[in-house]
UniProtKB/TrEMBL annotation:
PROSITE patterns: ARGC. Pathway: Amino-acid biosynthesis; L-arginine biosynthesis; N(2)-acetyl-L-ornithine from L-glutamate: step 3/4. InterPro entries: AGPR, AGPR_AS, AGPR_dimerisation_dom, AGPR_type-1, NAD(P)-bd_dom_sf, Semialdehyde_DH_NAD-bd. Belongs to the NAGSA dehydrogenase family. Type 1 subfamily. It comes from Robertkochia marina. This is N-acetyl-gamma-glutamyl-phosphate reductase. HAMAP family: ArgC_type1 (MF_00150). Its EC number is 1.2.1.38. One of its GO terms (molecular function) is N-acetyl-gamma-glutamyl-phosphate reductase activity. SUPFAM superfamilies: Glyceraldehyde-3-phosphate dehydrogenase-like, C-terminal domain, NAD(P)-binding Rossmann-fold domains. The keyword Cytoplasm applies.
Length: 324
């Protein structure tokens, strides 16, 4: 049985991890660390875990568990690891952006592997530290990487992506408040989103080219999910492109090429990513959809844990979408 600890236990990603791990046949939740909620019942914060998880939050850490998930705000994972020495055998899976770029991957004797299974599954399986990808980064990379590997991705790529309010985290803000978000739409961080660094890094590692991903993110008036559309110059036939994508994802249990136009309800509450290709004249549009809290965060973290511990990749992640 894998003993797991969660650091930063009161946020959205920690809540999703707990919901997955409490049903995972190979995992025992050892502790959930939260300085703001220490001593409180976990179910008093994550109400749906009532009767499923009879643990309290703690401000003490078992540094010798098999795996630790860091669900901390960006910049805080490095600080935490400097203050708490984790056993060498303990796998670290970090859900922040602290270790995603190559320049940050070496830290305190650890070598963090960028944890996108569709890109480096074998490397993940040998790792003892994982930098879990960002949610937008996951959706966009899964739409672009097959063309990059085929050498058919041009330098100029135009991308739009719309995300649900949970992408902003559990702490309320002016733009996540219901009365502002509902019946509303807005862009933010145009062409300068923090996930562009990891996207460009993966693309360059794949085809050795510098790409310009012109990314415009939007805030959506829904809770969870990401809908990303990418288009770029393409001189071939769409059927050939579909064959490239299907070959690229043939061993990926969660990422699938769809012949149908996409909508978010296909993937919300699942660890799935669906990709759809549409050609217009000399442009190819590739749309991808994911649940930002699962395939874009906690579900992918569990997927990485499964790979590292030699468990069936889909273990604990057989979630169903709800259409209504």
């Amino acid at each position: 049985m894998i003993k797991a600890g969660i650091i930063g236990g009161s946020g959205y990603t920690a809540g999703e991890l707990l919901r997955l791990l409490v049903h995972h046949a190979e995992v025992e939740i050892d502790f959930v660390y939260s300085t703001t909620n220490a001593g409180k019942a976990i179910a008093s914060v994550h109400h749906d875990l009532t009767g499923l998880l009879n643990l309290d939050f703690t401000d003490e850490i078992n540094t010798s568990v098999d795996v630790i998930f860091l669900c901390l705000g960006h910049g805080n994972s490095k600080k935490f690891l400097l203050e708490h020495k984790v056993a060498e055998h303990t796998v670290i899976i970090d859900l922040s952006n602290d270790f995603r770029l190559e320049a940050d991957a070496q830290f305190e004797g650890r070598s963090f592997v960028y944890g996108l299974p569709e890109l480096v599954k074998e490397k993940i399986a040998q790792a003892n530290a994982i930098a879990n990808p960002g949610c937008f980064a996951t959706a966009i990379q899964l739409a672009l990487l097959p063309m990059a590997e085929a050498g058919l991705l041009p330098e100029e790529i135009h991308t739009t992506g719309i995300t649900g309010s949970t992408g902003a985290g559990v702490q309320p803000s002016a733009t996540s408040h219901f009365s502002w978000r509902n019946n509303n739409l807005s862009w933010y961080k145009p062409f300068d989103h923090q996930h562009l660094g990891e996207i460009n890094q993966s693309l360059k590692q794949t085809d050795q080219k510098d790409h310009h991903v012109r990314f415009l993110p939007y805030r959506g008036n829904f809770s969870r999910g990401i809908f990303a559309s990418n288009y770029f110059k393409f001189e071939g036939e769409v059927q050939k492109a579909k064959e490239i994508y299907k070959e690229f994802y043939k061993d990926s249990p969660f990422t699938h090429v769809s012949e149908n136009e996409l909508h978010l309800k296909q993937v919300v509450n699942t660890n799935l990513c669906f990709v759809h290709l549409h050609q217009h004249d000399d442009l190819l549009m590739v749309t991808s959809i994911i649940d930002n809290l699962l395939k874009g965060a906690s579900g992918q973290a569990v997927q990485n844990m499964n790979l590292i511990f030699g468990i069936e990749e889909k273990q604990g992640l057989e979630l169903k979408a709800s259409y209504f």
